[in-house]
Amino acid sequence: MAGTDEDAVAAADDALYVLTAVLLTPAKFPSVLGDDYPEACAALGLAPLADGYGLVLGQDGDGARWTVVVDDVSLVAVAIASWDCGMEYDLSPDERSVVAALPGWPLAVAVAAPGVPEPHDPDPEVADGPPLTPPDTSRWGPAQRRLGADEIALQWAVWREQIDDSAFPTTDGASEDAEKEDAPAAAGEQADGQPGHTGVRRVLAEARAYVDTPPPLGRVRSSFAPGDARTLRADGPGWSLVARTDDIAFVLLDAEPGEVLPVGRGPELPGLLEALDKMAVRPI
């Protein structure tokens, strides 16, 4: 594994200026790195441990970028929660909790440590491997698609208010909607609960298959939502789905650059979302 030798760990631990931190667990991981938890771990050369990791991103005294991987997930979680609340927290992982020191950053970081040189990759002789770099999100693809789904989950109300429920077909309008299958509204559910959009049909079919054959850990995740609802996130080859268990769903496809396809509840979606929520990974 790149960066796990004693020299690299020592270099990263020597006056590491912590800039940010993220969790890498089955229930919460940077989705830009992969469709599921094992894939995200593989992007960093890490084994997918059940308890996960904390990723501490910072610079050493020379300004070099380092990602320190620790197994003290609770410590990193507390730090992130404190920062989110606007509180100061000195994140200083114990050396015994350090699993690896990886050169570079796997995610884009917009800030830099004061008083040290600008962020740069460590010296190859110290890094003992190629530096991590953020996935390319400058053009549409899996990484950008997953980031789009993240944004919808975070800004659900903003996206939801753009959808007119009357655009979703009803039983009385089934025959009329069948004639308009190529129209934008065809992404919504028809009378039998199946969407008119071919790509969305495939997504829902693959999501249903997850219920019978569990996918890799983290492919389906459930998180808090207002009221008694849950926010569901599911990913698969070439697609992402974001939904509220008491509402509609949104689908993003690699094959549909920049498109967000709404899926009305209809008679089948509620049952699918309930089944996915039961088997989803949840934050502890």
Descriptive notes:
Residues 113-143, 167-197 are annotated as: Disordered. A 5-stranded antiparallel β-sheet has the order 5-6-7-8-9, sandwiched between helices. Strands 1-2-3-4 form a 4-stranded antiparallel β-sheet. It has 9 helices and 9 strands. Residues 1-5 and 171-191 have low confidence and may be disordered. The protein starts with 5 loop residues before the first helix and ends in a 5-residue tail after the last helix. It is α+β, with helices and mostly antiparallel strands. Helix 8 crosses helix 9.
Topology (elements, then pairings):
Blueprint (H helix, E strand, L loop, with lengths): L5 H8 L3 E8 L12 H7 L9 E7 L5 E6 L2 H12 L13 E6 L20 H4 L14 H13 L1 H5 L13 H5 L19 H15 L7 E5 L5 E7 L2 E6 L4 E5 L7 E3 L5 H11 L5
Antiparallel strand pairs: 1-2, 2-3, 3-4, 5-6, 6-7, 7-8, 8-9
Helix pairs in contact: 8-9
Explain briefly what this protein structure is.
This protein has 284 residues and is of the alpha+beta class. The protein is 28% helix and 19% strand.
Number of helices: 9
Structural class, from helix and strand content? alpha+beta
Overall mean pLDDT stands at 87
Rounded to the nearest angstrom, the radius of gyration is: 21 Å
Give the N-terminus to C-terminus distance in angstroms: 29 Å
Unreliable runs: 1-5, 171-191
In total, the number of strands is 9
How many structural domains in the coordinates?
Answer: 2
Strand order of the largest sheet: 5-6-7-8-9
Helix content: 25-40%
Strand content: 15-25%
Main beta-sheet strand count, sense and barrel state: 5 strands, antiparallel
Shape: elongated
Instruction: Give the SSE string.
Output: HEHEEHEHHHHHEEEEEH
Region (Disordered): 113-143, 167-197
Protein name: Integral membrane protein
